[in-house]
Amino acid sequence: MQATATKQIVDIKTIKGQIATKIDNAAFSSWIEPLDFSIENNVLNLVAQNQFSADYINSVFGAPLNAVAAEYGLEIALSVCGSKNKSVTVANDNVVAAYAPAPVDTHAVAFDAFIASDENAFVLSACKKVASGVVSFSPLFIYGPAGCGKTLLADCIRSASNRVVMMSGAQFVSEFTRSLQNHTIFAFKDFCRNCDTFILDDVQALSGKRASSEEFLQLIVDLRSAGKNIVLTSSCAPNNLSGFDRRAQSLLASGLVADVVAPNANVKRTMLVRGGVSVNVADEIASRIANDGHAIAGVANKIKTYSELMGCDVDINVANRLLADTLQKFKTPIAMVKAMCEKLGVSYDAICGSGRARSLVVARQIMMVVLKNATTLSLAEIGSYVGGRDHASVLYAIRQIEKQQACDLLLTAQINQLISECK
């Protein structure tokens, strides 16, 4: 009896070691190591702490687990702690018809809908290249502030490409979770991979969603290995994504990273005119609207709707009254800092706090440089708007950023854009 027990312990250790060679170290430590292993009647019993863990292990690691068990002539039984009778068979079937994606809006959008400034010519060309066929740079990672046109570019690529799968980050999380619950995870995997171009809008929505992020990263690896096009959009660059480890950030940045600059005055004017606003009114109000495509579209819709309902043209006097809550009168230093917080993906409270995280420190330093170039504030006054820093701290921060600008063109472009928005 003792010999049998000893043999079982040795077998389980050996089996676990074999499984560890087939699964990433981090994934093994997070998902497989915590399982309770036992062998009974030629069945390798694995007990998970909860149903979600069981479903995820079943979907993601089912193949390697089955392969290792088969080497020892065993079958797999995966169950949940406290409910041994409710076992989850490790699936190896793959029924595509079992998964039905949620309906999405598929209206066609031409690239002409995106009004490109000189700064956005590069990212627009990259998007057109992706839409024309297989490219050498994959994934194409597009980032920029809210309202700069990231989703519009993604829609343009979808409309101009064949066999496209496009979803938002939030939708990916929802569909992945639903497929786990409905036991259609393999069909969901097939759906995402059965395309020539895969587009995920708002990657940052996966932050903190560990299981969804792991599945997404494996999807990126598989698609790229198969020579498929991948397009990702985000509110910030890969190395600034919170909730993603260094390995994930490196993978997302391994293709082509391109930023989208917020609309400038000329782009805003063109958008307003296209939206039905008269040229005279567009000229007057373009510089007083936030550099946000959503806000610009809202202004155009409001003017157009007012004209249709009231049966009259909207001149500048009517526009000023109609848009009194929208048009910017002047920009205070605090308003500039808050606007930059949104663009840089940090909170205003954190910037004004004592936090020393690298992302916060760099954001503060960038803001100091922008305020120095966009305003006539003294260094001491600039420090007072970014958390009460003294003259010496502001001077040191500015010198640090200026050194980086000498060898970082992306940082220089980002700072120049922020300066133009604050002036």
What layout of secondary structure does this protein have?
Blueprint (H helix, E strand, L loop, with lengths): L1 H19 L4 H8 L3 E5 L2 E6 L2 H10 L1 H10 L3 E6 L2 E6 L32 H12 L7 E4 L6 H11 L3 E5 H13 L3 H9 L3 E5 L8 H16 L3 E6 L11 H7 L3 E4 L5 H10 L4 H7 L7 H18 L5 H7 L10 H12 L3 H5 L5 H17 L4 H7 L5 H15 L3 H14 L1
Parallel strand pairs: 2-3, 5-8, 5-9, 6-7, 7-8
Antiparallel strand pairs: 1-2, 3-4
Outline the biggest β-sheet: 5 strands, parallel
Mean pLDDT: 85
Instruction: List low-confidence stretches.
Output: 1-10, 91-97
Strand order of the largest sheet: 6-7-8-5-9
Which key features would you list for this structure?
423 residues; GMP Synthetase, Chain A, domain 3; Rossmann fold; four-stranded mixed β-sheet; 54% helix; disordered N terminus
Description:
This protein has 423 residues and is of the alpha/beta class. It has four domains: 2-88, DnaA, N-terminal domain (GMP Synthetase, Chain A, domain 3, 2-Layer Sandwich); 111-259, 3-Layer(aba) Sandwich (Rossmann fold); 265-322, no CATH class; 333-422, Chromosomal Replication Initiator Protein Dnaa, Chain: A, CATH 1.10.1750. The chain has helices spanning 2-20, 25-32, 51-60, 62-71, 121-132, 150-160, 169-181, 185-193, 210-225, 246-252, 265-274, 279-285, 293-310, 316-322, 333-344, 348-352, 358-374, 379-385, 391-405, 409-422, and strands spanning 36-40, 43-48, 75-80, 83-88, 140-143, 164-168, 197-201, 229-234, 256-259. It has a five-stranded parallel sheet, with helices on both faces. A four-stranded mixed sheet has the order 1-2-3-4. α9 links the parallel β7 and β8 (229-234). The termini are far apart.
